[in-house]
Amino acid sequence: MKLRELVQGGAIGKPIAAIVHEAVGWFHGATYMRRWNRFREMSGDMLLHKGCHTLDIINFILGSYPTRVAAMGGTDVFTPRPEAADYCRQCSLTDECIYYTDQGEAYRKRFYETAGPQVLPEDYCVYNIDKDTTDNSSLVAEFDNGMRLSYTMTMVSPRGDRRMVIIGTDGELRTDMHSYRIEYMPLPDRDTELIDVQPPPGWGHQHHDMALLMHFLDRIESGEDPEAGIQDAWMSGAIAFAALESMETGEFVEVERF
């Protein structure tokens, strides 16, 4: 919310560019390869399933929507390894594989803290299990306010994070969702201001799922028109679908409105 206030309040002038890295942690990323998310038919690809949240945040911060997008992506990490078995319990490479799981207590605890209260997946080999999702993607998008976005998602980061740089005609804002700190660098040659933002209570999805739920209930209670919220939800997914189409065609794709 603070970042939105700064951008829409004119702290950096007219926004002209944004650079965003969706850094999915290596452990978290691997869990998707053992679950239904690895199939586009079910998840729409990781760019939709995971990326739509960050793309929604960008739209919210800017108060603007993307109009066209071009994208590239592929599966370059979790590719088949003939020397590995189909299941961890059958594999001879467990000592050297960072994705090995013995399904023990430590793994279960980390899985539930990362992925939430879900059914523990089988000990599938993350390399050899069938999949058709991308595990890395990049896109460029143009927004209706004239700003241009460069977005990349990877699934092998040492630590899960969202990193953002927003550049305007009068300065720059940098932030990440690990530190909850905003660096405000106004022009010309002024000192950088550090703005600490208090994170919401809870952990993992609890942070923002609860905030979304409370906002939804507040709208019902106040009788607000939900049309804007529906448009926001639509556009967070529409840019991902357009990006996936661009990956197939190699061309810019227009982002459809609701």
Walk me through what this model shows.
The protein is of the alpha+beta class and 258 residues long. It has a single domain, classed as Dihydrodipicolinate Reductase, domain 2 (2-Layer Sandwich), CATH 3.30.360.10. The protein has eight helices and nine strands. It has a nine-stranded mixed β-sheet with strand order 8-7-6-5-1-4-3-2-9. A hairpin with a 2-residue loop joins strand 5 (161-168) and strand 6 (171-176). Helix 5 (51-62) crosses helix 8. The chain is globular, with a radius of gyration of 20 Å. The chain starts with a helix and ends with a strand.
List the helices and strands and how they pair.
Elements: H1 2-8, E1 15-25, H2 26-32, H3 40-43, H4 46-49, H5 51-62, E2 66-74, H6 105-115, E3 136-143, E4 148-157, E5 161-168, E6 171-176, E7 181-186, E8 193-196, H7 206-222, H8 227-249, E9 253-254
Parallel strand pairs: 1-4
Antiparallel strand pairs: 1-5, 2-3, 2-9, 3-4, 5-6, 6-7, 7-8
Outline type:
globular
Task: Determine Rg (CA atoms, Å).
Answer: 20 Å
Subunit organisation of the chains: single chain
The end-to-end span amounts to 24 Å
What is the beta-strand fraction? 15-25%
| Mean of pLDDT | 91
Number of domains: 1
What's the count of strands? 9
CATH domain class: Alpha Beta
Tally of DSSP helical segments: 8
Instruction: Indicate the percent of residues in helices.
Output: 25-40%
CATH architecture: 2-Layer Sandwich
